[in-house]
Amino acid sequence: MADNEDQGEGQGKKKTGLVVTLAIVLVLSGVAGAGGWMLGGVLAPQVAVEEDAAGEETADAGEDGEEEGEAENKPRENLIPLDPITTNLSYPSDSWIRIEVSLLFGGAPDQALADQIHQDVLTYLRTVSLQQIEGPRGFQYLRDDLRERVKLRSEGRVNDILFRTFVIE
Q1: Which stretches does DSSP call E strand in 57-157?
Q2: What is the pTM of this model?
Q3: How far apart are CA 133 and CA 140, in angstroms?
Q4: What's the distance, CA 106 to chain centroid?
Q5: Which of 63, 80, 83, 153 is the most exposed place for a label (fewest CB within 10 A)?
Q6: DSSP strands (E only) in 8-157
């Protein structure tokens, strides 16, 4: 009989241990969920919902809390996509590179200037070796070099060069 009583106490301890463990897991999950929700509210951009003239709700993601009128007073930047550039690299000469880029103009876009920049980028890419652009650091150097060349060629009228595709074969 004493053995039966010991087994009953052992099962009771196992059940209470399991209940306590589940309670702790539930409490910690609730704390983690609430913390994630609060952090998401802090980090996420505030979205103001406004009604337009038709009475429909529109979401305005104002990170800086800008009004629509303030955004209209800012100068608009224009984006011109260049034709895809495909050329072989200088070394090894059997390696090919294909990039598609866009130019971000600060003022009015100039197609003639964009064509000159296209030719300049093509000429530059023919002088690059595969070892120079390998890895993330090499790609960063290529972006920085192209950005500098574009700004010099455009005399500051182009703010940035944006990569859309980048393939090496």
Answers
A1: 57-61, 78-81, 85-88, 96-105
A2: 0.55
A3: 8
A4: 22
A5: 63
A6: 47-51, 57-61, 78-81, 85-88, 96-105
Question: Running DSSP on this structure, what letter comes out for residue 132?
Answer: G
Cα separation, 84 vs 99, in Å, equals 6
Q: Packing angle between helix 135-154 and helix 111-125, nearest 10 degrees?
A: 140
Q: Which residue has the tokens 């800012």?
A: 74
Pairing of strands 158-168, 57-61: unpaired
CB-CB contact of 133 with 101 (8 Å): no
Sign, CA torsion 109/117/142/166: positive
Determine the Cα–Cα distance for residues 112 and 153; give it in Å rounded to an integer: 12
Is the omega angle on the peptide bond into residue 92 within 30 degrees of 0, that is, cis?
A: yes
Nearest to 89 by CA among 56, 60, 117, 129: 129
Q: What is the pLDDT of residues 78-123, one digit of tens each?
A: 899 999 999 999 999 899 999 999 999 988 899 999 999 999 999 9
The secondary structure element, H or E, covering residue 162 is strand 158-168
DSSP character for 93?
Answer: T
Measured between alpha carbons, how far is 125 from 6 in angstroms, rounded to an integer?
82
Largest CA distance in the chain: 100
